Amino acid sequence: MDGHPASSKWTLFEAFAQNIIQLAQSNRQQWAQTAIFVTVDEGGGYYDSGFIQPVDFFGTGPRIPMIAVSPYSTGGHISHAYGEHSSFVKFVERNWKIHSTLSERSRDNLPNPEQRGHNEYVPSNMPAIGDLFDLFDFPHHG
Fold first, then answer.
1. HEC string for 5-37
2. Residue 109: C-alpha distances to residues 49, 52, 135 (Å)
3. N or C: which end of the chain has fewer CB within 10 A?
4. Residue 114: per-residue pLDDT
5. Which pLDDT value is given to residue 135?
6. Boundaries of every domain in the chain
7. How many whole angstroms separate alpha carbon 127 and alpha carbon 122?
8. The domain defined by 10-140 carries CATH number 3.40.50.1100
9. CA–CA separation, 90 vs 131, rounded Å?
10. What is the pLDDT of residues 18-49, one digit of tens each?
11. pTM of the predicted model, to two decimals?
């Protein structure tokens, strides 16, 4: 149920994710403090060939789909902020006010992207990686 076309069926992956979300939602106290990120690995075949930042030899990789499910999510919002797998780490660090990063060379050290220019997918302050906070509306909850 990993969502990879070669080893799984997409419908099984969707059912697995739906089951996890429904279990979290069934506990109101838990759900009130929950954010679930549903995504796939770019090796799964579900990606687009948009811009890739050249942060190292491999770059950040192709864009992949990701859905945030939470009582705090903005719902229906499509983020244009440049993100990648370390965006999850940046989200945790910011949300729980962790003031140190994984290491001096890790991508969670990179600033959040600024989107000033003709292409909203290309950060004007490269290299930059988003922290996923634009997917949520925390001030209007709780």
1. CCCCCHHHHHHHHHHHHHHHHCCHHHHCCCCEE
2. 25, 18, 20
3. C
4. 92
5. 94
6. 10-140
7. 10
8. no
9. 5
10. 999 999 999 999 999 999 999 877 665 666 66
11. 0.84
